[in-house]
Amino acid sequence: MSQARIEKRELFGGDVVDIALGPPPGNIITMALANELGEELRRLHVSPAGKAPKAIIISGTGKHFSFGASVEEHRADIVGDMLPRFHALIKDVLALDIPTIAKVSGVCLGGGFELALACSMIIADDTAKFAVPEIQLGVFPPVASVLLPYKISEAVACDMIFTGRQLGASDLLTLGLVNRMAAAGALDATVEDFVTKHVLPKSASSLQMAYQVTRKGIVEHYVRHIGEAERIYLQQLMSTADAVEGIEAFLAKRAPEWKNA
């Protein structure tokens, strides 16, 4: 397995930090990557007002944002360690008092989509495809199950989670989840233009306080519900034959044989 990593760049004299997931092409979110990203976010979070960045951009290395969390780490003997670590990372993103922008091109699936959901804004290009395909593996996405109904609607959340189908950036722009959409090849320029016009002229301390108050509701919602979603996943779902079969079938590159139990 390729070694997990993130790459950090300071932009605009440190007023903006870009954190790129890697390695490409999949930018898979392993426990190692989640730990590294969480540590970096916590360092930025405790920076004194006026010294902290005005925005954090989370992007993918290469053509894609992320293929999602490691399927290998969803195996029954590992998932009990992986899932709480990933859920803690999402809380780290939600609880930041620094605006976060998910810069998305290409594939944005599963845990990658959940990471983007935790950001305060999503700016994507017209190559971006979003999905939570976990149901096709006999499991479900706890973070998306908690955040999607809050950020869009229960109807759209049910559609995406129960079918696992992909939606394009234009679909999610219409639904209000994607904030801005760029043409292919113009994503960097679109994000830079947004940051230059709407972020850099603002006070860092004022942004932090406005952001903290605005995000209070979603943080409380997540904290209130993610524990139960995690419990159902680990204690109930992973005790079923189909959850184990779905993961193992995917790793073996074969069709699952469901027992419907």
Strand and helix map with partners:
Layout: E1 5-11, E2 16-22, H1 31-45, E3 55-60, H2 79-95, E4 100-104, E5 107-109, H3 110-118, E6 121-125, E7 129-131, H4 142-151, H5 154-163, E8 167-168, H6 169-175, E9 180-182, H7 187-198, H8 204-214, H9 216-236, H10 241-252
Parallel strand pairs: 2-3, 3-4, 4-6, 5-7, 6-9
Antiparallel strand pairs: 1-2, 7-8
Features:
261 residues, alpha/beta, 2-enoyl-CoA Hydratase, Chain A, domain 1, six-stranded mixed beta sheet, three-stranded mixed beta sheet, 48% helix
Mean pLDDT: 95
Strand content bin: 15-25%
Query: What is the CATH superfamily classification of the domain at 5-183?
Result: 2-enoyl-CoA Hydratase, Chain A, domain 1
- What's the CATH topology name of the domain at 5-183? 2-enoyl-CoA Hydratase, Chain A, domain 1
CATH top-level class of the domain at 5-183: Alpha Beta
Strand count, sense and closure of the main sheet?
Answer: 6 strands, mixed
Low-confidence stretches: none
Kindly name the structural category: alpha/beta
Q: Kindly report how far apart the N and C termini lie.
A: 31 Å
- Tally of separate helices: 10
Rg, alpha carbons: 18 Å
Describe the structure.
The protein is α/β, with parallel strands linked by helices and 261 residues long. The protein contains ten helices and nine strands. A six-stranded mixed β-sheet has the order 1-2-3-4-6-9, sandwiched between helices. The longest helix is centred in the C-terminal third of the chain and has 21 residues, at 216-236. The two termini are 31 Å apart. The model has no long low-confidence stretch (mean pLDDT 95).
